[in-house]
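Lab notebook, page 48
Experiment: co-folding of the full assembly
Goal: obtain a model of how the components sit together before planning crosslinking
Operator: M.T.
Materials (sequences as entered):
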Amino acid sequence: MFGWPVKLHEHQAKTVLARAGIPIPRGRIATTPDEAANAAREIGGRVAVKAQVHAGGRGKAGGIKLADDPETARTAARAILGMDIKGLKVEKVYVERAAKVRSELYLGVTIDRDRRRPVVMLSTVGGMDIEEVAATQPGRIARGWPDPRLGLLPFEARRLCFEAGVPKELVAAVAAVAERLYGVFVSADANLLEINPLFVQEDGSVIAGDAKLDVDDSALYRQTELATWKETLADERLEERARALGFSYVQLDGDVGVIGNGAGLVMSTLDAVRNAGGRAANFLDVGGGAKAAVVKAALEVVLSHPRVKSVLINIFGGITRGDEVAHGIVDVIRAQPPRVPLVIRLSGTEAQAGRTILQGAPLVSRETMDEAASEAVRLARSSQGAPPPSTPARKP
Amino acid sequence: MSVLLNRNTRVLVQGMGREGRFHAGRMREYGTQVVAGVSPGSGGTDRDGIRMYDTVAAAVDATGANASLIFVPATGAADAILESIDADLPLVVCITEGIPVHDMLKIAAVLAESRTTLIGPNCPGAITPGECKIGIMPAENFSPGSVGFVSRSGTLTYEIADGLTRAGLGQSTCLGIGGDPIVGLPTPDAVRLLNEDPTTEAMVIVGEIGGSAEEKAAEYMRAFGRKPAVAFIAGRSAPPGKRMGHAGAIVQGDQGTAGSKVRAFEEAGIPVANAPSEIPALVREALRA
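Observation: model returned without errors.
Model output:
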């Protein structure tokens, strides 16, 4: 299974499903207990009040409550709004009509990297973590790999139903949902689209109980509506800011700041820090052909993190030029002497010119990645840098 | 002394913008035959002494090009790849980053029915040192020899090639296949090409966390390996669930972990370097054994 940063909320995913003709329970979003009570009154009957957060396991965390009347819905919303689920604060709830459930199915589409095809999965074990089902009872999941040029064909959808053991009176309805779901998977540029559970109701109709939609961020340029639905979590703001500046940044939990060019090289640099007995504070890839201004911004972002006690800059010049990198570093040092030691390793295109520019600057230069990592780890240990902040780290 | 590209390869460049022109120039300096440029609407003109064509088909007709290098921006790159496959080019290299994965799924399906080998997207390209370079890698880090090299990462490829070159270990062909979840030439296929190449005496396989291409390559080598190989996996210290720049480099659940890849290589009798700097010594050892 693979996931992506652009995750949509359940109510957003359901909106997309409903447009494609997939039945969803009537529902409304609420940000206050009063709004939740009004929504419950409008919907009528029994409702579910569901936390809208980008975290799995909402139900177990108490983020989903059933309510038989508007007053109970108000109480439920009061309990859920503001709740902390896996470090995320619940800011809105989705109030929807409770399904009259006879049984539950799992239906999902994702990308099978090995087969280089989309894979549609259907199981009569609904409502469960499908990865757990896949690990413990792989025979319970029927899979199909449609040709991406043809889409999920009717016979493929039917075959999935029969292979999964869907009761024959439900096959037509479930197959229709599968075909439509596949259509949304393609039209939304999804990496993952799941209905889990897909409820079979007492009257034999099927309806989406929950929905999960992760969108390929490379396709946001043509997913203009979905792009506007994207929310940035507090912890990702720095990562978002980094992206706007033209590099890629991931927060980690160590104290050695890392800057490099190229994802593979930066990952290897993180590994080198660990091999030297240290822990990296971040992943930062300035990308190909970074100019001085980008390097300067990258260094500022890394230094802005209070936990960082030394910074390791590892550049192997290709399109990226050593002299450009050196200029960026010198600019930062000139504006304000860094509060922690810098270790640099420059190699490749214009590395010699870069080293000349850096001569006399207050930093340590090393020939190889391993030597530079060892030095950065040693300096982080002996650094007088600020102690780590006392705020508890959030689990991803 | 190579796979896929050699001194006889005739390259056309799709997307002769700033990047395309710059690298076309660098490739010619290296000795690559750059025979045509393709940018719609530019047909009949000349850019830096390179004849321009409106379509890939026209360029192939006029010049006998048998490889394409793509610099077209992400919104048009999938179309550019399909145009080259349609022109039946044996080799297509796509440098462009950020092609939507759904486009790559369609391309993978078309590729499977074609005779085209696609390297990339989101890659540095391929080089047969001393003969032909199709890509953006700094050529001075590479040297001719008999070590075949496949890598999912860009800059790390330069780092490792530089290490091999300094150690006197030249390369037959280096394939930078790209870090996306769906690439044209996945690691196992690249490994198979090098394994079957008579001029390649040893192999370096550089992988990353994410997916199971390395495990598949190890399985293949265990069954069919004819020559010694050394592996390296980037991202051994990366935490699960975090995507490290490359769209493919993400660990979900127990899939694609460094541990699983290292185990697969070791079970296939392929030593795994702890750091890129260990690779040359391991290659030397493997060649002696």
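Interpretation: Chain A touches chain B through 57 residues (CB under 8 Å).
Next step: discuss with group before ordering constructs.
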